From TrEMBL:
Entries under InterPro entries matching the protein: AB_hydrolase_1 (IPR000073), AB_hydrolase_fold (IPR029058), ABHD10_acyl-thioesterase (IPR052382)
Ranges where the AB hydrolase-1 domain occurs: 49-242
PANTHER family registered for this protein in UniProt: MYCOPHENOLIC ACID ACYL-GLUCURONIDE ESTERASE, MITOCHONDRIAL, PALMITOYL-PROTEIN THIOESTERASE ABHD10, MITOCHONDRIAL
Ranges in coiled-coil conformation: none
UniProt name for this protein: Palmitoyl-protein thioesterase ABHD10, mitochondrial
Amino acid sequence: MPNIESHRLVVGTGTQAREIAIETRPGSAPGIFWLGGFRSDMAGSKALALDALGAETGRAVTRFDYSGHGISGGDFNEGTISRWLEESLAVFATTKGPQIIVGSSMGGWLALLLVKALAAKGEKRAHGLVLIAPAVDFTHDLMLPSFSAEEKAALENQGFFDQPSQYSDQPYRINQALIADGENHRLFGGVIEAGCPIIILQGGQDPDVPQAHAIKLVTHLLHDPVTLTLIPDGDHRLSRDEDLVRLRDAVLRLAEG
C-alpha cells in the first residue's frame, strides 16, 4: 500500500503568497480529488474516508487545506472564493489523469467553478463529481438573506462581523470581501455544465444548505447526467457511518461507470 506523501505548494506571489498543505496517496486513475467546506480541513471524517477508499482500491487521492484552513498558511480572514479557487486549480494541476472531484458544502461550489475554469482552458479531466450538500452561490443565496440588520451594518461600517457557529467554540468571522467576491462567481441564473456525471448527496435535515437548494442546482444542470440522493434524516455534515458508506458508493459508481 503506497504511503501518503505530504508536501507544500506556494500559491500566489509577493504579499499574496501562501503555502498550501497537500496530502497525496499515489495510485491509479481515476483519482479522487477532495474539496472541503468553509472552515473544514483535510483531516475530517469524509476526507479520511476517501483516503481509506483510495488505500483499499489502489486509487490516487489528493487532499489539501485552503489557505487559512487546517495546516496551510495564510490568513482565513483574507479568504475569498477567488483565492480558494486559485488554490484549488493549483493543487489540481499537480494531479495526473482523470479525477473524481468530491466537494463538500462550499467545496461543492468550488468543484463546479473548478471544472468551469478547466473547461475554459480546454482541460477535461473531470471524470465525475460528487457534491455533498453543495453550497452553490452560498454568499449570495444562503448568507446574505440570513444576516440581521445589525450584521449588515457591521459589514458596511467595519468590513466584518463575528457569527456564532454550531460547529466550533469560536465564532466565524464573516468578511465583506468574501461576500463581495462571491458575486463574481455566481452560477445560478444560467445553465451549469460540468461535462461529466454528477452525484449529489443532500441531507433532508440540513440547517445550512436546505434541500431546496440542491433541487435548485439540479434545475440548472441541463446537459449532464445527475443523480440526487436525498437522505431524509441527514444533517449538513453527512458524516455518520451510513453517510460515509453512501459517499464511498457514490465515488465507486463514478469510478466504475
